[in-house]
Structure formats: C-alpha cells, structure tokens
Design brief:
Strand content: under 5%
Shape: globular
Number of helices: 11
Oligomer: single chain
Helix content: over 70%
Order of helices and strands: HHHHHHHHHHH
Structural class: mainly alpha
Radius of gyration: 17 Å
Number of strands: 0
Largest sheet: none
Distance between the termini: 43 Å
Length: 195
C-alpha cells in the first residue's frame, strides 16, 4: 500500500498543479454568467469529462496516437500553445475571437476542458508520469485530480462571490496575460524540440 501511496500523492499533486482549476474559475464564471445553476453544473461536468477523456486516451494509448498520425510532441506543443495563446489574448483584452459570445458560452465546458485544463502540459505530464509510475497509479491520480477540479468548477460561483466581481475581473485579465505567457513558453519549447 505504501508503495502505491507515495507515487499516487505525487502524481495527483503534479496533475492538480498542471490542471490548475483555480486559474479556470474567473474564466468559467464569466463564460457561464447568467446561466441557471443546472447549466453551470452541466458545463462544469463537460469540462471535466473533456479533460478526462483526453488524459485517459493519452494514458492508455501513449505515443501510439502521435506515431499513427505522424505527429511529434513538439509539433503538438506548438499547436496547443497557439490555441492557448489565443485564449489568453481573449482573457487579457476582454475580446471575442470566433463565434458570438452567446454561442461560445454554451461551449464553456469544452473551452475550459481543453486547452485550458487539458492542454499540452497536462498531456505531457500524463505521458511522463505513466512512464515513471505505471498505468494503474496514474489512472487513480487522474480520477482524483478530475474530482478536485470538478468540485472547484462546480462551486466557482461561490468562489467568485467571495472574491467579488471587480477582483475576479482583474484576476481574469492578469491570468489572461499569464496564460499567454505560458502559451509562449509551450510554443518556444515546441519549436526548440522541432529543431
């Protein structure tokens, strides 16, 4: 039991930090603003399911997906980083790129699920941890990390009310810049890996 517990705690901690659900709170609350509680719950569940499906696919199929499609991890990092950068710009500037605001709100769960929760960083972490600790430990760690993430998203409205709209809006702008900066680092790592 002790042999499983230590890697499980480490893997859970690493995944929770990478998923960073607290980063998603201001984004999620702004995208689900004025939605009924049942719809907010649904979008929180969709976000966790989307992130979970991606993480489990990469856990069980590892590099087979990349090999089959002829994709390298660095090229995946560049593509994911670009998407994350666009999301960061939207957050920082408070602008809408793509579909109308009302349409994008209905897809809040998908946008939060990927690339924000489960992006290149989370997928890379899953690949590396599965290599180090095995499939069983990581499958349990993913489940625990997703449960914690769902709880935070589910109660994101309460978290926002405690912080207040003004602080949440400021956090969303600042976090948007941080997301864009993280995206630049992911893109730079990917470009380095390509060459």
């Amino acid at each position: 039991m002790q042999d499983i517990l230590t890697p499980l705690i480490y893997s859970f901690s690493a995944l929770f930090v990478i998923l960073d659900p607290l980063l998603s709170v201001p984004i999620f609350t702004s995208m689900t603003k004025d939605m009924p509680a049942s719809e907010v719950n649904k979008q929180a569940l969709i976000a966790v399911v989307v992130a979970g499906v991606l993480m489990y696919i990469f856990l069980f199929f590892n590099f087979l997906i990349f090999d089959t499609l002829g994709i390298t991890l660095p090229s995946f990092q560049v593509a994911g980083g670009i998407l994350l950068f666009i999301l960061g710009i939207q957050m920082a500037l408070g602008i809408e790129i793509g579909p109308s605001h009302s349409h994008s709100r209905t897809a809040a769960g998908v946008v939060i699920g990927t690339p924000l929760l489960c992006g290149p960083g989370a997928i890379t972490t899953v690949l590396l941890l599965s290599r180090d600790y095995g499939t069983l430990v990581l499958a349990l760690a993913i489940a625990l990390a997703l449960l914690a993430t769902w709880i935070i998203l589910r109660f994101s409205g309460i978290i926002q009310r405690v912080l207040g709209d003004c602080i949440t809006d400021i956090m969303a702008r600042v976090l948007g810049m941080l997301v864009a900066a993280i995206a630049i680092k992911i893109i730079a790592d990917g470009i380095t890996g390509l060459f």
